[in-house]
Write a structure and sequence with these properties.
The protein has 309 residues and is α+β, with helices and mostly antiparallel strands. Helices cover 19% and strands 35% of the residues. It has 3 domains: 13-72 and 209-239, Pseudouridine synthase (2-Layer Sandwich); 74-206, Pseudouridine synthase, CATH 3.30.2350; 243-306, PUA domain (Archaeosine Trna-guanine Transglycosylase, Chain: A, domain 4, Roll), CATH 2.30.130.10. The two termini are 32 Å apart.
């Protein structure tokens, strides 16, 4: 029996891709995985095909840290087109309503405080939310009738930054996980007595990853081999800048790698655990190299995800 063909190299780390419009996030991941000849890949937060901007792509062991990116703060800039509503609430959808109402900047700014802080938001019908086990976008494409429940999301900041003409307004937003810009644009329009849809959307930040550090997909494609591509690979721990780090001894590192909790209750450990609270996530280090994501509780660190780097 022949040997099974190898499906890529054990590449570990992050690419911060500047996603182009007109391609899905999954397609970007597949391109990056092929260019890097990586065995495993995923992304840190879906962008709609229309959208551009920061798409963190995790390779290998970095996929174990994706939750910390997906749950992090995100920043966007979007353009809202007044007077036209679409079924997808962006420019890719079919027009379902039109209106002559065009709000001015004063009216728009007056309603923005309603959309700051924790707000209730109904996701778009064309979204990945599950309804009775099926994706909402599949039901919407099939013409099914269904309702989506509102969800609580955090909008840290929403600001009107430009109104280039009567038909368009440009906003900048910082938000927590799960917030939909299409829903936010729809609801801002309704709040000023208008209708609208997002005609352009760009993500400028995901957690520690920002657009100034991103590389375009075309640039990655231009390299002749995977070695050149890998020059732009960031370390796994880049995604964990905001997580406390804990240096371990060789013996502690061995025990943690084998799945055992490490006790830190000796007098000499007190300085190491200063400032930690029960339930905190801690990055365990062995000689400066990350070896595991752990949870601190009652003087011990318990392994959550061991990193095989």
């Amino acid at each position: 029996m022949g040997r099974r063909k190898r499906r890529g190299d054990p590449v570990n780390g992050w690419f911060i891709v500047d996603k182009p419009s007109g391609i899905t996030s999954t397609s970007v991941v597949n391109v990056v995985r092929r260019l890097a000849n990586a065995a495993k890949a995923g992304h840190g937060g879906t962008l709609d095909p229309l959208a551009t901007g920061v798409l963190p792509v995790a390779l290998g062991e970095a996929t174990k840290t994706m939750r910390y990116i997906v749950d992090g703060t995100k920043s966007y800039q979007f353009t809202l087109r007044w007077g036209v509503a679409t079924d997808s609430e962006d420019a890719d959808g079919a027009v379902v309503e039109t209106s002559p109402v065009r709000p001015d900047a004063t009216a728009v700014r007056a309603v923005l405080p309603r959309f700051t802080g924790e707000i209730e938001q109904v996701p778009p019908r064309y979204s990945a939310i599950k309804v009775a086990g099926q994706r909402a976008y599949d039901l919407a494409r099939d013409g099914e009738s269904f309702d989506l429940e509102p969800r609580t999301v955090l909008i840290e900041r929403v600001e009107l930054v430009a109104m280039p003409d009567a038909d368009h307004a440009v906003f900048e937003v910082s938000c927590g996980a799960g917030a939909y810009m299409r829903s936010l644009g729809r609801d801002i329009a309704l709040a000023v007595g208008a209708i609208g849809h997002i005609s352009a959307l760009r993500r400028t930040r995901v957690g520690p990853f920002r657009e100034e550090n991103a590389i375009s997909l075309d640039a990655l494609r231009s390299f002749e081999d995977s070695a050149a591509v890998l020059q732009y690979l960031l370390p796994v721990e880049t995604a964990l800048d905001d997580i406390p780090a804990l240096a371990l001894t060789d013996g502690e590192a061995r025990r943690l790698r084998s799945g055992q909790a490490i006790s830190l209750l000796r007098k000499m450990d007190l300085q190491r655990i200063a400032g930690l609270n029960d339930g905190d996530t801690v990055l365990a280090l062995d000689r400066g190299k990350p070896i595991a994501l752990t949870r601190y509780a009652a003087g011990e660190v318990h392994p959550l995800r061991v990193l095989n780097l």
